[in-house]
From TrEMBL:
Keywords: Transcription, Transcription regulation. The keyword Transmembrane helix does not apply. Residues 2-57 form the HTH deoR-type domain. This is YafY family protein. Signal peptide: none annotated.
Length: 309
């Protein structure tokens, strides 16, 4: 991609006194004419380029500009590293590692150590299984070249399924990374959590991209509704964080009313039931009845279970 090549050229010129156009063309596998067009673009962007004539000449960046390092401020570098660290936490890539090393060279080691001691990115859960890193190179190749991907996927109920998809975009939503893809098995778009994907395989087979303009990020068939809950004081802070302070109002006798976002699925009902006796669903009536039904079914199973002792 041109933007990648331009950034790489700038990084090289910042690191070296000068380099010939033919050498740059060889490194990036393009023609010298393309390199001269890139240099013109870089110059127009405000980075002062100098050309040195003669057999030992070449292309360089004005020394004063290099000394002042106005291309990236310390804040710029820290911001870039924060983004790269968040990617590196869930994806493995030699290119990501090389880019982090290059960017680290723009600021002092003391500043890097201070930054890395203050901000830690760790997507692994406090409890349960550890998330595994994916090969970012395969994901990037599939996205750029429209190549099919297949993988194993562990859903929220710990059931493992195999999918073959047309990948369209990576999405960071609510601190988690997802792959937005067209599922060949389901014949529709679906969001796949990267931390739940394994055994990813990049196929040679290509696909013709579909129009994404009308496709929502969350193509789930289950629509969100709102419940009216009555909760104990002990759940107030959790509900304020989950639903927003404006959706939690005082009722009486240390009880609070909550406007609670809810999707009617096994996962949604499981989440609701996890609050136990500290939470009662008041509305809508059909959700309230379904909660009671699930509690009764659970009690029936426990009563009918034969002791294993």
């Amino acid at each position: 991609m041109k933007i990648d090549r331009l950034l790489s050229i700038v990084m090289l010129l910042l690191d070296r006194e000068k380099i010939s156009a033919s050498k740059l063309a060889e490194m990036f596998e393009v023609t010298p004419r393309t390199i001269f067009r890139d240099i013109e673009t870089i110059n127009k962007a405000g980075i002062p380029i100098i050309t040195y004539p003669g057999a030992k000449g070449g292309i360089g960046i004005m020394e004063k500009f290099k000394l002042e390092k106005k291309l990236f401020t310390t804040t710029d570098v820290i911001t870039l590293l924060l983004g790269l660290n968040s990617l590196n936490a869930i994806m493995s890539s030699e290119d990501l590692l090389k880019t982090r090393v290059k960017i680290k060279g723009l600021v002092s080691e003391e500043q890097i150590l201070l930054f890395e001691s203050k901000i830690v990115i760790d997507p692994t859960p406090w409890l349960g299984k550890q998330t595994q890193k994916l090969n970012f190179d395969d994901l990037r190749t599939s996205l750029i070249n429209n190549r099919l991907l297949s993988f194993d996927y562990c859903d929220q109920f710990e059931e493992l399924s195999q999918y073959k998809v047309e990948p369209y975009r990576l999405v960071l939503k609510d601190t988690l990374w997802y792959l937005h893809a067209y599922c060949l098995k389901l014949q529709g778009f679906k969001m796949f959590k990267l931390s739940s994907m394994s055994s990813v395989k990049l196929h040679d087979e290509q696909f013709s991209p579909k129009n994404l303009k009308s496709e929502p990020l969350d193509p789930s068939e289950n629509k969100q509704i709102y419940l009216k809950l009555l909760i104990d004081e002990s759940l107030r802070h959790y509900m304020a964080g989950y639903c927003g302070e404006e959706n939690v109002t005082f009722h009486k006798n240390n009880k609070w009313l909550v406007k609670f976002p809810f999707v009617e699925s096994d996962y949604g009902y499981g989440h609701l039931l996890s609050f136990g006796e500290k939470c009662i669903c008041l509305e809508p009536e059909h959700v309230r009845l379904e909660v009671m039904n699930r509690i009764n079914q659970l009690m029936k199973k426990y009563r009918n279970t034969v002791s294993l002792n």
